[in-house]
Design goal:
BLOC-1-related complex subunit 7
């Protein structure tokens, strides 16, 4: 009857081993599922940040264009200002000349 007991004990141990293997597998599958979910979330977050980065890059390009356009406008305005200053100086000289002429005329007419 001793061999029978040993066989029974072995079967018992095997059953216990089987249970623990099943338990481990279930645990692994569960944690693996959790990992997959976490990874999926991470990937989605990553694609979202890539999207945001792309948007930021596009915005920067637009701003750069706007800045360049503004620079161009400022340059043109500076040129116009310079021209206006020249014209103003010319007008002032003409005014001075004409007032000189008026003085001379008034002296002549006295």
């Amino acid at each position: 009857g001793r061999g029978n007991m040993a066989a029974g004990g072995a079967a018992d141990a095997q059953a216990r081993f089987g249970h623990s293997v099943k338990g481990l597998l279930t645990e692994k599958v569960t944690s693996c599922g959790t990992d997959v979910i976490a990874l999926t979330k991470q990937v989605l977050k990553g694609s979202r940040s890539a999207e945001l980065l792309g948007q930021a890059a596009r915005n920067m390009v637009m701003q750069e264009d706007a800045i360049l356009h503004s620079e161009d406008s400022l340059r043109k305005m500076a040129i116009i200002t310079t021209h206006l200053q020249y014209q103003q100086e010319a007008i002032q000289k003409n005014v001075e000349r004409s007032s000189n002429l008026q003085d001379q005329l008034s002296h002549l007419l006295k």
